[in-house]
Structure formats: structure tokens, C-alpha cells
Amino acid sequence: MARRCKEDAAATREGILDAAERVFAGIGVAGATLHDIAIAAGVTRGAIYWHFQDKAAVFDAFMCERASLPLDVGKYPSEPVSAADPLDALHAHVLAALRRSAGDERLQRIFRIAMLNATILDHGDAAQRRWQEIRRGWMSYAERRLTLAREAGLLGPAAAPHAIALAIWIMIDGLVRTWLLMDRRFDLVAQGESTLATYMAGLRAAR
């Protein structure tokens, strides 16, 4: 009986987060209320309060457990770090992220919440930690690749892996945000491939 109750409670909590995801995507985090989430989940507000202190706690749980960003290397592991051409490997990884973003409707909904419908700095520490965790994962992955590329002579000796990794993060983050804001009216993968190829060619040419 105790196990059944625990399973039921876990299922209710997941149902609340499912509903919160739909509500946050539909009307934004700021405009959403616990009443909206309760109706969408088919539960009472009391059931929500059993699992979460307030709306900010619901949002934090969503961010920690479900949120992703385009360059989330923790959720989407890359190939081994010993690839023959580290710049090609980095390029391929970013393009794979764009293809995944363009082809997954639920992922796009999650991006809308995390990137457009919420200002993370206005919410709890847990949400901020999740955003920083994703960014640090990308920076660590990209800087390793770029350092290998510099050591292999594919980049100039003055190339700064941290600055390049951050530039790619900003480029892809901005591209996906713009794509979502424009209601996906351009080809994300084609535009991303063209933009990234131009940038990577510039890095190689600067040797």
C-alpha cells in the first residue's frame, strides 16, 4: 500500500509538471497561475501545494528536471574527444544540435519556455543553476575541442578557446531565439550551417 501511494504521488507530481509545461508554453511563466496549472493537470491547488511551495518552485522543478537549451551537451553527449579534426567535430556537433532543435516539437516548446517565456534571473536559484550548468557543459566541451585544434595547428597560436566557445554559444542561442520569435519562418538548419561555416572558415583562415 505504501509503495502504491508513493507511486501515485510521483505520478501526480509528473502530471503537474506536464501541465505546467503546457501552461508556461501557452501563456508564459509570468502570466501563469497555480490555478491555471491545477486546471490543466486536473488536480486541486492543494495537490500542487503538497508537492510545490509556489509557482516559482514549480518553475524551478521544470528547469532542473526538464529544461534544455540548444547546446546542451549533458543531455546530448558528443563523440569522443579524440576526433581527427577537432574543428570538424565541433562543427558537426553544433549542426546536430540545430537539426535536433528543428525536428522536435516538444523540444521547441521547452526552448520557448526556457529562452523566451521566462526571465531566469527573476526566478529561483535552482533555475539559474540549471542554465549555468548547461552553459558550463558546452564551454568545457567546446574549449577542449578548440584547444586540441590549436595544438594541431588548425587555429593560430593566439586563438582563445574560451572566447571562441562563448562566441559560438551566443551565435547559436541568438539564432534559435530569433527562429522561435519569427515563428520558425526560416530554415534553422540551413541558416545555422551557413553562419557556422562562415565563422569556422574565418577561424581556419586566421592561422
Automatic annotation (TrEMBL):
The residues that make up the annotated DNA-binding region are 33-52
Q: Which residues form the HTH tetR-type domain?
A: 10-70
The UniProt transmembrane annotation reads: 154-172
Superkingdom of origin: Bacteria
Give yes or no: UniProt keyword tRNA-binding: no
Which keywords label this protein?
A: DNA-binding, Membrane, Repressor, Transcription, Transcription regulation, Transmembrane, Transmembrane helix
Pfam families to which the protein is assigned, alphabetical: TetR_C_2, TetR_N
A GO molecular function for this record?
DNA-binding transcription factor activity
Protein name listed in UniProt:
TetR family transcriptional regulator
Species this chain originates from: Telluria aromaticivorans
